[in-house]
Amino acid sequence: MTTTTKRYGLVAVCLLLAGLVLMAAFGSSDSSARQAKPSADGLLAGASATPVNGYGSYGDTGALPAAGGSQPGGQLAVRTDEKLGAVMTDGQGFTLYRFDKDTAKPPASNCSGACATAWPPVIKDGNTTAGSGVDASKLGEIVRADGTHQLTVGGWPAYRYAQDTAPGDTKGQGVGGTWNALAPDGSKAKAGGGEAPASPAPAQPTAQPTATAMPQPQQPTGGAQLSMMNHPQLGQIMVDGNGRTLYHFGKDTAWPMKSNCEGQCLKTWPVAAPVDASKIKGIDPKLIGKMQRPDGTWQLTINCLPAYTYSGDQNPGDALGHGMANNLWTAINQAGKPAGGK
């Protein structure tokens, strides 16, 4: 009887000690969480990396992608950010970044492990190409420790940011004071375009307006397919090779790039055809691109938005479509935005 009592007493003591150990462990975990601070890599100390639907869908909770979240760059492009100027993007429109702790001469990455989880390296493969506004001579690659080939721009290794959840996001800009969006030449993107290639000087129209006639668009030498003309009310607006005014539609979207003009709409607002980059006059080439429509045809894009002409414009230089449908249709100025302040 005495032996049994002692045995039960020993078991109770063991259970009590186990409980105290567990309480101490939870207390330590809570304390560590409270002390976690962001690092220069943009991570929280002790933060777990949990993937949510793969690249481009890391969720709204700030969860980071699992290691191996790196993806090919696709067709690289340049977009104009309102705050940062010219910014490099991947084929899906996600912002590319550079890390101050890396080096460009020689190109080398110092972001690995947890850093590469928060900042997935951009993989350069056979499908990584220079798209609109990208200088192919600035592109290169390095071989990472795991054998993958990482894209470089102007010698700087390129990354995405895990918490950029939508094309056009720039949440990684300035993180830790060491991460910056990439400009097209590999420099840090900054207001005013930073060190990005300078835009071509505006072309001057050769035809002068008269009191009795609408000014005609310039006729650039070499048969320009896209140029500027000076409209008496709207100022400088973009026109195609035949002098027809080009328009944007307010219901279209840039990210993702999509046209919402279909069917009967296209009879009134015909699609503008893509242009040869060598035949653009007086317009920043990085604003010009193209997109494939659902029917397989290609459409000119200006500042990442589809471009159209207007069937009601009868003469070169007409801009009768500007302001139609409560200003949903607008002529396009030299910056790729609505002309005339509308």
From TrEMBL:
<dbReference type="InterPro" id="IPR005297">
    <property type="entry name" value="Lipoprotein_repeat"/>
</dbReference>
<keyword id="KW-0449">Lipoprotein</keyword>
<dbReference type="GO" id="GO:0043448">
    <property type="term" value="P:alkane catabolic process"/>
</dbReference>
<feature type="signal peptide">
    <location>
        <begin position="1"/>
        <end position="24"/>
    </location>
</feature>
<feature type="region of interest" description="Disordered">
    <location>
        <begin position="164"/>
        <end position="228"/>
    </location>
</feature>
<keyword id="KW-0732">Signal</keyword>
<feature type="compositionally biased region" description="Low complexity">
    <location>
        <begin position="204"/>
        <end position="225"/>
    </location>
</feature>
<dbReference type="Pfam" id="PF03640">
    <property type="entry name" value="Lipoprotein_15"/>
</dbReference>
<dbReference type="InterPro" id="IPR047910">
    <property type="entry name" value="SCO0930-like"/>
</dbReference>
<protein>
    <submittedName>
        <fullName>SCO0930 family lipoprotein</fullName>
    </submittedName>
</protein>
